[in-house]
TrEMBL record:
Cofactor: heme
Membrane topology: Peripheral membrane protein
Keyword terms of this UniProt record: Endoplasmic reticulum, Heme, Iron, Membrane, Metal-binding, Microsome, Monooxygenase, Oxidoreductase, Signal
Main location: endoplasmic reticulum
Annotated compartments: Endoplasmic reticulum membrane; Microsome membrane
Lineage, opening ranks: Eukaryota, Metazoa, Chordata, Craniata, Vertebrata
Database matches in PANTHER family: CYTOCHROME P450 (PTHR24300:SF424), CYTOCHROME P450 508A4-RELATED (PTHR24300)
Protein name per UniProt: Uncharacterized protein
Family, per entry: Belongs to the cytochrome P450 family.
Residues at which heme binds: C387
Gene Ontology terms for molecular function: arachidonate epoxygenase activity; heme binding; iron ion binding; oxidoreductase activity, acting on paired donors, with incorporation or reduction of molecular oxygen, reduced flavin or flavoprotein as one donor, and incorporation of one atom of oxygen
GO biological process, one term: epoxygenase P450 pathway
């Protein structure tokens, strides 16, 4: 297993690393589509390629629905949940967020409104080069703030800035971070501060709770806790409230903004794609009204580009670890229920050469048929199987990206031909390279 790589990452003066994936897919050339690696003392079954991932995550969805536990997070919320607790918290979150309009018109209005705030902020850059990370994170984060905290924040609001400062991709691994010295311990400290922030909001909500008129996810959770009072086996506790809220906050913020940040960089590298996007946006939406979800069905090129950005950026290359809910045979191998993590290497489906003509090339044609209509491809697995926020993410990506391109032309700071669109580092997440761009009003 000498080839096993945990992330890439280029240092100053060094050539960029090859596109390494956390478990280099080349391992499958030697060991096949299914093999075991040992992470410390934990055996993990790694699954590679579209067909095998489909077999496990879709055809045997129930059997592979357990959440792997090598992240060792105690009293988990949804993302690291398992069994009955996970089922109940997940169902509750879906129903509650839908009641606030997630995946529906209510959320669409919020996303459109947030897009307008984002555009106003982008005009303030006055065509000068800037790093888009902060503004994109604010926009994505505000959608989740509205769902879980019942309000959006101005981008300069100190409470919001403090909150944004706590977010880091590595949040998802707080328990690992706790033990790794150096900057990781700071990240773990940030995780605790975010939990504290949530705790304060919970105290505030409790004082003003109106059972007839819950304002946000936290209110709904508190009401559920009241209903479950007296049930010694309840899964709705202070602890699961805090963890679930932190899960939603993280999962819904960093994913969307990283995809947008990656996407804009790819468009800087491919101005011909940007030009076709402008053309379709001008033709279908025009310059004067804000984009809405109804437009999407008439914009196959935009749809294809967003899918291709998500495929190519591949921001969660290893997926999130699963485990089996019962002993199962897969391709003749026995995977026991207990003690085995299953790592679905989503990247091996997203880059599967049997499913994409030129997997290593950014090409929106991967999602277009010969008549220019949008073409689904089942090997597209950016959301894996159980992402709870998929509908919301799709809405945000479409409305934010089309709004930006409706108003601005992108201008690179560096020579377009040399823009490197491989990730800055590639591990549990693919992190886009830091860059600056200018937005020229159209
Ligand atoms: C571009 C955006 C996004 C991407 C690429 C993404 C990707 C993923 C992936 C790969 C998983 C693991 C699924 C599995 O275990 O099979 C996941 C789970 C999850 N995502 Fe997303 N996600 C995105 C946006 C969001 C948003 C906006 C939310 C918030 C509402 C969200 C909430 C969650 C939650 C709560 C889980 C855990 C679900 C569970 O274990 O039951 N995600 N996501």
């Amino acid at each position: 297993l000498g080839e096993l790589k945990f992330g890439g990452g280029s240092k100053a003066g060094m050539p960029p690393p090859p596109r390494t994936l956390s478990f280099s897919p080349q391992l499958s050339e030697t060991y096949g589509e299914i093999f075991t690696v040992h992470l410390g003392s934990r055996p993990c079954v790694v699954l590679c390629g579209y067909r095998l991932l489909k077999e496990a995550l879709i055809d045997h969805a129930e059997e592979f629905s357990g959440r792997g536990d090598f992240l060792d997070t105690p009293a988990p919320g949804i993302v690291y949940g398992n069994g009955e607790r996970w089922r109940q918290l997940r169902r509750f979150a879906i129903v509650t967020l839908k009641s606030f309009g997630m995946g529906k018109r209510g959320a669409e209005e919020r996303v459109r409104e947030e897009a307008q705030h984002l555009i106003q902020q982008l005009y303030q850059t006055h065509g000068q080069p800037f790093d888009p990370t902060f503004l994109l994170s604010c926009a994505g984060s505000n959608i989740i703030c509205w769902l879980v905290f019942g309000e959006r924040f101005e981008y300069g609001d100190e409470r919001f800035l403090a909150l944004m400062g706590l977010i880091n991709l590595l949040f998802i691994f707080p328990n690992i971070m706790r033990f790794v010295p150096g900057p990781h311990q700071r990240i773990y400290a940030n995780y605790l501060r975010l939990a504290e922030f949530v705790g304060e909001r919970v105290r505030r909500n409790r004082q003003t709770l109106d059972p007839q008129n819950p304002r946000d996810f936290i209110d709904c959770f508190l009401l559920k806790m009241q209903q479950e009072k007296g049930n010694p086996d309840t899964h709705f506790t202070e602890d699961t409230l805090s963890k679930t809220t932190v899960n939603l906050f993280f999962a819904g913020t960093e994913t969307v903004s990283s995809t947008l940040k990656y996407g804009l960089r790819i468009l800087l590298r491919h101005p011909e794609v940007e030009a076709r996007l402008h053309e379709e946006i001008d033709r279908v939406i025009g310059r004067h009204r804000s984009p809405c979800m109804e437009d999407r069905s008439r914009m196959p090129y935009v749809d294809a580009v967003i899918h291709e950005i998500q495929r190519f950026a591949d921001i969660v290359p290893m997926g999130v670890p699963h485990t089996t809910t019962r002993d199962i045979q897969l391709r003749g191998y026995a995977i026991p229920k207990v003690g085995m993590n299953v790592i679905p290497l989503l990247c091996t489906s997203q880059f599967d050469p049997s499913r994409f003509a030129n997997p290593q090339t950014f090409d929106p044609g991967h999602f277009l048929d010969e008549n220019g209509r949008f073409k689904r491809n089942d090997a597209f697995m950016a959301f894996s199987r159980v992402c709870l926020g998929e509908g919301l993410a799709v809405m945000e990506l479409f409305i934010f990206l089309t709004s930006i391109l409706q108003h601005f032309q992108l201008k690179a700071e560096e020579d377009q031909a040399t823009i490197d669109i491989t990730p800055e580092s590639s591990g549990l997440g693919n992190i886009p390279r830091p860059y600056r761009l200018s937005l020229i009003p159209r």
